[in-house]
Amino acid sequence: MAVRLLKISSLATAVFASSGVYLYSKQFDINDLSLIRFGRAAATTAVISYDYLTAFKDVEHGTEEYLALKSVVHRRSAERLRDLCCANRGTFIKVGQHIGALDYLLPEEYTSTLKVLHSKAPQSSMEEIQQVIREDLGKELSELFVSFEKEPQGAASLAQVHRAVLRDGRMVAVKVQHPKVQKQSSKDILVMEVLLKVVHHLFPDFAFMWLVEEAKKNMPLELDFLNEGRNAEKVANMLAHLPFLKVPTIHWDLSTKRILTMDFAEGGQVNDREYMKKHGIQVNEISENLGKIKCPQSKMTEIVLLDHGLYQVLQPDFRMNYCRLWQSLIQGNMSGVERYSRKLGAGDLYPLFACVLTARSWTAVNAGISSVPVTHSEDVEIRTNAALYLPQISDLLNRVPRQMLLLLKTNDLLRGIETTLETRASSSSFINMSRCCIRALARHKRSKTTSRKVRLRISLAESFNLWKLSLYEFLLWFKSSMLGLGLSALLGLCWDSS
Q1: What is the DSSP string of 266-294?
Q2: What is the distance between the alpha carbons of residues 213 and 442, in angstroms, rounded to a whole number?
Q3: SS3 of 122, please?
Q4: CA 4 to chain centre
Q5: Which tens digits make up the pLDDT trace of 335-393?
Q6: Contact status, residue 419 vs residue 101, Cβ threshold 8 Å
Q7: Please, which residues have CB within 8 angstroms of residue 232's CB and are 6 or more apart in sequence?
Q8: pTM
Q9: Hey, how many other C-beta atoms are within 10 angstroms of the C-beta on 177?
Q10: Closest Cα to residue 397, out of 322, 345, 361?
Q11: Is the CB of residue 308 less than 8 Å from the CB of residue 278?
C-alpha cells in the first residue's frame, strides 16, 4: 500500500510539475479559466439578486423613499456589473458596453456606470499581438511593416488598433483581435444565458433574454474581420454619393478573420467637444452629419466611418412599416402610430414603443413630434420613465423583431452623441431619419404604379413633406441662433412692459 501511495504521489507530483511548466510557458492567467469566469459571474448575479430581493422589504412601494432607495440599489448593482465586466473582459465588456449605450431604454444609473467600459477595455501585450500576426499572416512584423507602434491607438473589448507604416510608405491602421476572445466568447454567452434565465425565474418581470439572443447572433459576425472588411466596401459603394463621407480602403493582403488592415485616418472622436473646439468644427454640423472630423490636407470637414463589424439588411415589409410608423409620428397620426407599432410587434405596448423609438414623451407623440421641439425637461422625463417602466420595456424588447433592436441601439447612440455635444434640441437624428423614411415610402409607392399622374402626385407629396421638414429644421436653427435668442429676449421685454 505504501509503495502504491508513493507511486501515486510521485505521478501526481510529476503531473502537477509538468502542468505548471506548461501553463507558465503559455503565460497562463487564472482569469482565462471557464470555472473562474463562471464563478465570478454567478457570484455577482447572486449578490445583485439578493440585493433587489431584500432591499425594499421595509419600504412602501411607490413612495419617495422607495424611489430614492431604488436608485441607490440600481447604482450599486450597476457598479457590481461593471466590475464583473472588467474582471471577465472580452464578451462581458462588449455586452456591458451595449447596455451602457441604451440611454433612453434603461435606468440612468446603469447606463452612466457602464459607459466607462468604453475606456476600460483590455489591452493585449505586444507579444500577443505579434503572435496573432505571425499565426494569421505567416510573417514577422518586421517583414510586413517598416514601423509598427507598440502603443495601440485604441483598445476595445474584442480588439485593439495599432498604427503602422507599409513598405511603400503608406500609413495604415492594423486592427488585431485579442487572442483569447474567440475561445471564450461562446462559453461566456452560455454563462450569460444560464444566469439570465435564473434572474428571470427570480424576477419574472425582467426578461432580458433578447440581450443574449443578440450576442449569440452578432458575436460571430463581429469576430470575423473579413466580414467587417466586406461591410466597409459595401457601405463605401452605397454611400459614394455623399461627398463628405470617407471609408478607409481595406488592405486585403494584410487582413484575416483576426486582423483587419486599412488606411489610417487622423481625427478625433465623434463626441469629443474639446477636439472640435480646438479645430474650429461646429458641433451642430457634427451632430447633423454624424461623426465629422477635420481633414488636415484639404482643411475640409468629413465623416470617417471606422467600425463596420455589425450591419443588418432590413426586410422590405419591416422597412416599409418602420417608415410608415415614422411618418405617422411626424404627423401626429395616432391611429397610424398604433397600427404600424402593432405591425412591428409592439402589441398593446404601442404607446411605450412610440416613446422608446423617438425618445419623446407621450404628450409630444400625440401632438406630432415635428411640431413639438425637444426640451431638457422632456429629456429628463424620458430618462426617469426608463427606470419606472423597466419591466414593460424589457417585455417590449422581447416582443419586437430582432431587426428592431439594432435600430433602437443606433437611435440611442445618435441621441447620446447629441446629448454629449449639447445639440439635442436641433433634433438632427430625428430629422435625418424622417427624411429617409419620406423618400423610401415615396420610392415604394412609385414602384407600385405605372400611372404618370399618380407618380407625379406621389412626387409632389414627397417634395411637400420634405419642405415641411426643412422648414421645421430652419425654425429649430433660428430659435437656437443668436438672432433668435435676441428676438425672444426682446419679445419677452416687450411683453413684460405691456
Answers
A1: ----TT-HHHHHHTT--HHHHHHHTSEEE
A2: 34
A3: coil
A4: 60
A5: 999 999 999 999 999 999 998 888 888 888 888 777 777 777 777 777 777 777 888 88
A6: no
A7: 247, 248, 250, 262, 305, 308
A8: 0.78
A9: 24
A10: 345
A11: no
